[in-house]
Design brief:
The protein is of the alpha+beta class. It has 13 helices and 22 strands.
Length: 483
């Protein structure tokens, strides 16, 4: 007999986890199902991480409404999740008089105190490396930058702390009505819930179609990125945008919360959810970045990647109840600014469920999350104290990012913890530094296996069959400790 839940959330991206976190403020039995082996494994893992200010909202759209609705949540989220968004501000750059009109539109739309249109000289006072060919720039002081990984994981951890259950490796295949409940079918089992929220990213239109909705399939748009080494940290201090053309905000240059510089994305249609990068695409990204920063040090690129956006034909969010299952809510086409709007989407979802009959009785004992120390960011005194308490704090496993064995073990044993190398990477930044795993990639599988009680050959990079180790070589004996 299947266990019954009040709400099941399908999808462990930033929006699905935000919904689970929001609903965890109330006395509900909640389950989150994710088809991959970890949260933040789909669309959410590959984006710019920008918290767009109200200057960049899209009028007369649902995504614009939920963008604005999300902004008042920022400070509360920082306190409850124990994270900090980097308040960088932004410069949107015009290269001609005709583009100046767009800057004026941003200023009128935002009505932000301290926002202004700058001359080229004023803009270069803020960003000395900016192109000398610019005509003007709009300065927005309210733009922030988040780590997509940190935000997604913090939401998941907070939801778990407050009673949400997570089950991974569960790809939903269909729905069936059972009284006033919905039975969810996956390839591995069945689950029963009074209410279901489908926030499945690129699979969201497929699941809506499986529930009987006649809606078009989403188009996957791919954007490629360059990641520059932390040595380039002081290259730019603000998010730099061009004036957008067509369907995209354009190729931007942005600081990140971890000190790298991000350049991208371009825009192209992806076939079969392909997240590869191409020589032509990365060249386009480089040229777009150099339009803003002519002396962009692309020789300092340490990684390239691409992300996918689940795009509806009208480029808007679509949030609606199923016509066949009155307590099944679909979220379709949640692309940019989905990360910015995630808090607003979560609150809106709660309101829709409440209007349909879900009782929201607020908990009195909601638990605030506390973040785990990051060794690289600690003072020498703080490091010394931790090492005295646990020697694993003094053992560096990732030299580029200064990640310790203590941090790796915590990431593996926390809830929900990492069960893959990519999940570990997103939690503590191993394999994200200059050598991209050339050093720590030798040690981590053995440390993971020992900590999780697995065989070394069971360790996977991301998916169920992406085994990291294949067979023994003369240099490495299976099971030999390398850390």
């Amino acid at each position: 007999m299947s266990e019954k839940f009040d709400v099941i959330v399908i999808g462990g991206g930033v929006v699905g986890c935000a919904i689970a976190w929001y609903l965890a403020h109330f006395d509900l039995q909640i389950l989150l199902l994710e088809k991959d082996l970890d949260v933040c494994s789909g669309v959410s893992k590959a984006n710019t991480g920008i918290i767009h200010s109200r200057s960049y909202w899209t009028p007369r759209t649902l995504k614009g409404e939920l963008h604005l609705r999300s902004l008042p949540w920022i400070e509360q989220a920082e306190k409850e999740l124990d994270i900090e968004f980097l308040k960088t501000g932004a410069l949107t750059v015009a290269f001609s008089r005709s583009e100046l009109e767009f800057l004026k539109t941003l200023k009128r739309r935002g009505k932000i105190k301290g926002a202004e249109i700058l001359t080229p000289q004023e803009a270069r006072t803020l960003e000395p490396m900016l192109s000398d060919k610019i005509f003007a720039a709009y300065y927005d002081p309210e733009t922030r930058v988040a780590s997509p990984f940190q935000l997604n994981l913090a939401l998941a951890e907070s939801a778990f702390l407050n009673g949400v259950r997570f089950i991974f490796g569960q790809e939903v295949t269909g729905f069936e009505k059972e009284g006033n409940h919905i039975r969810i079918f996956t390839r591995e089992g069945e689950y029963l819930s009074r209410w279901v929220v489908s926030s499945a990213g690129l699979s969201s239109s497929y699941l809506a179609q499986r529930s009987g909705e006649n809606i078009p399939s989403l188009r996957a748009l791919r954007g490629e990125y360059l990641v520059l080494d932390r040595e380039c940290k002081d290259l730019v201090r603000h998010v730099l945008y061009p004036v957008p053309v067509g369907e995209t905000k354009g190729i931007l240059v942005s600081p990140t919360t971890d000190g790298n510089i991000l350049v991208g994305p371009n825009l192209e249609v992806a076939e079969d959810e392909d997240t590869s990068t191409t020589k032509e695409g990365l060249k386009e990204v480089e040229e777009g970045g150099k339009k803003l920063i002519p002396f962009l040090p692309v020789s300092q690129t340490i990684a390239t990647f691409s992300g996918l956006r689940p795009t509806s034909p009208d480029r808007d969010f679509h949030i609606f109840f199923s016509s066949r299952f009155p307590s099944l809510l679909h979220l379709v086409g949640i692309e940019s600014p989905g990360l910015t709007a995630s808090f607003g989407i979560a609150e809106y979802t709660g309101d829709l469920l409440k209007e349909r009959g879900l009782k929201l009785s607020e908990k009195r004992d909601f638990i605030f999350r506390s973040s785990f120390p990051v060794f690289r960011k600690l003072s020498w005194e703080e490091r010394k104290k931790l090492i005295q308490e646990d020697a694993d704090w003094g053992k560096i496993v990732c030299r580029c990012e200064e990640v310790t064995i203590a941090e790796v073990k915590h990431a593996l044993l926390s809830s929900p913890g990492a069960s893959t190398l990519d999940g570990l990477k997103r939690r503590v930044r191993v394999m994200m530094g200059r050598c991209q795993g050339g050093f720590c990639g030798m040690h981590l599988p053995f440390l993971m296996a020992e900590t999780l009680g697995l065989e070394e050959r069971e360790i996977v990079k991301s998916g169920k069959n992406s085994f990291y180790l294949g067979k023994e070589t003369k240099e490495v004996r299976s099971g030999a400790p390398l850390y």
